[in-house]
């Protein structure tokens, strides 16, 4: 059966350094190409936390060096760089894996802007830490000079924080659709997309981080996908996670999932956005299903053998 599947890759599918990542993506490509080989249409989304952090920090340090000619790199540009570099590695590895199996299918990355609402309440309460750690004094200076919002991060020093707004639309959606409809494999909304706000005909990049689980859900809805598969480091979602009475779940109805969220079973910033994205997708249209499982188990998961399936019934 041919299904349209948006696959959201987590941090464990990528690497912390370019060298490590170029190796790791060879493994990441295998389950993805398995899905393609089985006849599915596959669209790939991914996170970028460590990568955009690395780029941001490197540019920051280089621009701060005495006599430096390196300009300051705004955060949306750092996001674009991370999309480009991660996309390059993924398309390189997926292309090779396809060719190794005799499949001649074009693969490309679309540098993707994701539209957010300038009135999103997230802009009043920045929560995502990015970049280097600073002393209180340095933090104050940065706040004054650059208007950054600086917050103490778990006793380790001060860091800049940026908002995490909700994705509203994908600027390049027609391009992605056209490529997918022509049977091409597309990597899109990397790192949740480059956050932009609309002003007339302009899209203006803003220093913010869109959750990749929410952006993946958004593009899955836009593309009318059948499945949203969120691949991460765990095979299933658990309730009482890490406790003695931990229970791994095979299936979650939207109602159950909402109840478990209320009871606080899913950690904010890690499992919570995945379950929320899964619920949103399952609710968005009849027949849509979401699956949360590990990268290695993606194919068993789609066959119903493992993972946590989230459905609206
Ligand atoms: P990714 O990079 O894939 O987004 P995250 O670290 O953000 O990964 O989220 C996945 C992690 O969430 C899992 O590896 C697990 O440690 C953690 N987690 C938190 N709560 C739960 C839960 N209830 N069930 C399963 N995993 C959970
Ligand atoms: Mg995450």
UniProtKB/TrEMBL annotation:
Alphabetical keyword list: Arginine metabolism, Kinase, Transferase
UniProt keyword Membrane present: no
Gene Ontology BP annotations: L-arginine deiminase pathway
Domain (Aspartate/glutamate/uridylate kinase) ranges: 4-293
UniProt keyword Acetylation, yes or no: no
GO molecular function terms noted in the UniProt entry: carbamate kinase activity
Entry-linked InterPro entries: AceGlu_kinase-like_sf (IPR036393), Asp/Glu/Uridylate_kinase (IPR001048), Carb_kinase (IPR003964)
Pathway membership: Metabolic intermediate metabolism; carbamoyl phosphate degradation; CO(2) and NH(3) from carbamoyl phosphate: step 1/1
GO cellular component, one term: cytosol
Domain of life (superkingdom): Bacteria
Catalytic activity: hydrogencarbonate + NH4(+) + ATP = carbamoyl phosphate + ADP + H2O + H(+)
Membership in a protein family: Belongs to the carbamate kinase family.
Protein name, entry field: Carbamate kinase
Organism (species): Caloranaerobacter azorensis DSM 13643
């Amino acid at each position: 059966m041919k299904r349209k599947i948006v696959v959201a890759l987590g941090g464990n599918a990528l690497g912390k350094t370019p060298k490590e990542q170029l190796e790791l993506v060879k493994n990441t490509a295998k389950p993805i190409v398995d899905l393609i080989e089985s006849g599915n249409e596959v669209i790939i989304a991914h996170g970028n936390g460590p990568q955009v952090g690395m780029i941001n920090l490197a540019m920051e340090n280089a621009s701060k060096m005495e006599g430096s000619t390196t300009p300051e790199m705004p955060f949306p540009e750092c996001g674009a760089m991370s999309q480009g570099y991660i996309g390059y590695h993924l398309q390189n590895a997926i292309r090779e894996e396809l060719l190794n199996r005799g499949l001649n299918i074009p693969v490309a990355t679309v540098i993707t802007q994701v539209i957010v609402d300038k009135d999103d309440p997230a802009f009043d309460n920045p929560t995502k830490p990015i970049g280097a750690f600073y002393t209180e004094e340095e933090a104050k200076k940065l706040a004054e000079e650059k208007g950054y919002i600086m917050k103490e991060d778990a006793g380790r020093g001060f860091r800049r924080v940026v908002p995490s707004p909700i994705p509203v639309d994908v600027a390049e959606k027609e391009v992605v659709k056209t490529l997918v409809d022509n049977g091409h494999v597309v990597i899109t909304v990397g790192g949740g997309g480059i956050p932009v706000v609309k002003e007339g005909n302009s899209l203006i990049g803003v220093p913010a981080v869109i959750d990749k689980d929410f952006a993946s859900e958004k593009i899955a809805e836009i593309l009318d996908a059948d499945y949203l598969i969120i691949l991460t480091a765990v095979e299933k979602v658990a309730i009482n996670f890490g406790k003695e009475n931990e229970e791994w779940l095979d299936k979650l109805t939207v109602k159950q999932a909402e109840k478990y969220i209320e009871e606080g079973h899913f950690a904010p910033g890690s499992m919570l956005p995945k379950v929320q994205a899964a619920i949103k997708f399952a609710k968005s249209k009849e027949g849509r299903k979401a699956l949360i499982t590990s990268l290695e188990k993606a194919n068993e998961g789609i066959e119903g053998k493992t993972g946590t399936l989230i459905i609206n019934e």
